[in-house]
Amino acid sequence: MIDVEAIFKRLEGTDEYMKFERVEPKPSYIPDLCAFLMLESLDLIPKIEHGPNAGRHWSIVANAEHDEIFLQVDMDKLAETATEEFIIDLYRCGVMYDQEGLKMFV
């Protein structure tokens, strides 16, 4: 298990933020879509629990405020399944840590 918050804090102030060209392999050549697909690849997006769409993924965007979107991601599962390099690549795609979870500028 990794300490997601500690890795993001260590990355702050480095030259890694939005260095999308360093992400390999890229599931998409669009940074925000790349981050979404990376998170989906680890099955971190919550699923609908009831009704005809039960078992399908819910939206990755939990909410938006001013110029930020907040991502709906299972943070415990992220800590259990992600590697430090995975977190660095998310940061390179523009993902940041917030006490509530993950966020991105729009």
Structure description:
Helix 1 (4-11) crosses helix 4 and helix 2 (31-41) runs antiparallel to helix 4. With 106 residues, the chain is α+β, with helices and mostly antiparallel strands. The chain starts with a helix and ends with a strand. It has one domain (4-105). Strands 1-2-4-3 form a four-stranded antiparallel β-sheet. The longest helix is centred in the middle third of the chain and has 11 residues, at 31-41. The chain has four helices and four strands. The chain is globular and about 45 Å long.
Strand order of the largest sheet: 1-2-4-3
Mind summarizing the main beta sheet? 4 strands, antiparallel
Number of domains: 1
- Span between N and C termini? 30 Å
Radius of gyration: 14 Å
The level of helicity is: 25-40%
Measured by DSSP, the beta-strand proportion falls in 15-25%
Mean pLDDT score: 90
Helices, by number, come to 4
**What order do the SSEs take from the amino end to the carboxyl end, as H and E?**
HHEEHHEE
Query: What's the number of extended β-strand segments?
Result: 4
User: Class by helix and strand content?
Assistant: alpha+beta
Coarse morphology: globular
Low-confidence stretches: none
